[in-house]
Design goal:
Layout (H helix, E strand, L loop, with lengths): L16 H7 L9 H17 L6 E6 L2 H10 L7 E6 L2 H12 L3 E6 L8 H10 L5 E7 L1 E2 L4 E2 L2 H11 L4 E5 L18 E5 L10 E6 L1 H7 L11 H9 L9 H17 L1 H22 L2 E2 L11 E5 L7 H11 L4 E2 L8 E5 L6 H17 L8 H13 L1 H7 L1
Parallel strand pairs: 2-3, 2-4, 4-7, 7-8
Antiparallel strand pairs: 1-9, 5-6, 8-9, 10-11, 11-13, 12-13
Helix pairs in contact: 1-9, 2-9, 5-6, 9-10, 10-12, 10-13, 11-12, 12-13
């Protein structure tokens, strides 16, 4: 691929140059008051993005996977029961992590392309009269399939069942790009990472804990050391980490949070919806379909696009990289070879997205698919011309 081209993978995403430069900073004494001026704005800014008044925010040198482990090991004990649906590769991996930690996972198998089955959750939770289920896992945005699930509906299922289980949400590819309401949805642990909506390199696991989750920390018996939020909290009390912090990444996070606030979170979410809608118009013009089965589960950060039966979708990704220096995402797990993915999150504009759509068209045409050059681009252009706030302001 070419470093001059934007990437259209679902993460890591394109970085604003100012954020990249913020990460590239001189060495400081991370035990000096200077680090507190980086740390505290990060914690406060993440809390605002989560739309929470009370969440305890923790930032670890890791990735979203480390965030999953932070959630589990700080709140659960060996043999505890967890309820989870498997509807994509990332829900599958979180389930796998639970099982490796000796947790008892009740799995609701769900077709890839569908959202989380909140009604089935309610049935299972209602029948769990002994409240053996300690945690419900929910993947807000399944990155492998381009499926967004209704977290508010999962919370309603818990409440309707009168069940005290904690609600853990994987928001790795949604938080900071799509609306996330930790307090309103009753989320107990929210997990994300630095390399998607926050427009940074991979390297930070970012988690928010509710007061209820923090209470569970005191009785949890799964082993944890590096990811112990108690140690991290004691470090924060002294404007420090319990070990050497990733200062450069934290400085980049501080700036990215400020950029999100300056744009306005509602504007950030609207931009992602607008760009995603243009991509969906292009897919329709190509005569192709999304992996996501219906509009209510369409993701605003990634589209997994099905190719015709018998065509290896991975060829699109490899040809795009070799012939045009542009990166798209491959299919994963059950949809490997059946879809290719276009990431449309983070630092992205309508115009940048059009370059990705134009390249995707050339690639598919090169590979013999029945694609008319310009068809998808024109469909997206038509929407962006009439649906873009920027275009409307310019016209006025």
């Amino acid at each position: 691929m070419s470093f001059q081209n934007p990437v259209f993978i679902p993460g890591p995403t394109n970085m604003p140059e100012a954020v990249r430069q913020a990460c590239y900073m001189p060495t400081i004494d991370h035990r000096s008051p200077v680090f507190g001026k980086i740390l505290n704005p990060c914690l406060d800014g993440v809390r605002r993005v989560l739309k929470s008044e009370t969440a305890r925010v923790f930032v670890f040198p890791s990735t979203g996977t480390g965030g999953w482990e932070t959630a589990l090991t700080n709140t659960l004990s060996p043999g505890d029961k967890v309820l989870a649906a498997r509807n994509g590769m990332f829900s599958h991996r979180w389930i796998d992590m639970c099982q490796r930690h000796g947790l008892d996972v009740q799995i609701v198998e769900t077709p890839w392309g569908q959202g989380l089955p909140a009604n089935r959750y309610e049935e299972i939770l209602t029948s769990d009269r002994g409240h053996e289920i300690k945690v419900v896992l929910a993947t807000h945005n399944e990155t492998a399939t381009g499926v967004k699930s209704d977290i508010a509906a999962v919370r309603r299922a818990l409440d309707a069942a009168g069940h005290p289980a904690l609600l853990f949400v994987d928001g790795v590819s949604s938080i900071a790009s799509m609306d996330f309401r930790m307090d309103e949805w009753g989320v107990d642990v929210a997990v994300t990472g630095s390399q998607k909506g926050f427009m940074l390199p991979a390297g930070l696991a970012i988690v928010g804990f509710s007061e209820k989750a923090m209470a569970a920390v005191e009785t949890a018996k799964l082993p944890r050391t590096f990811f112990d939020v108690r140690d991290m909290g004691r470090g924060y009390a002294n404007n420090a980490f319990p070990y050497t912090p990733p200062v450069g990444l934290m400085n980049g996070l501080k700036l990215s949070l400020q950029m999100l606030q300056d744009e306005g979170l509602d504007n950030v979410f609207a931009r992602h919806t607008r760009i995603a809608t243009g991509v969906r118009r292009a897919v329709e013009a190509w005569g192709l379909e999304l992996c996501a089965v219906s509009p209510e589960v369409y993701s605003d950060t990634v589209s997994a696009i099905r190719t015709p039966e018998g065509f290896d979708a991975t060829r699109i990704v490899t040809h795009a990289a070799s012939a045009y220096g542009m990166a798209f995402g491959v299919g994963l797990g059950e949809v490997a070879g059946k879809v290719f993915r276009i990431g449309h999150l983070g630092m992205l504009t309508d115009a940048l997205m059009l370059s990705g759509l134009a390249t995707a068209e050339m690639v598919m045409k090169d590979l013999g698919l029945d694609i008319k050059l310009g068809s998808g681009v024109a469909a997206a252009q038509d929407f962006y011309r009439h649906g873009s706030g920027t275009a409307k302001q310019a016209a006025a």
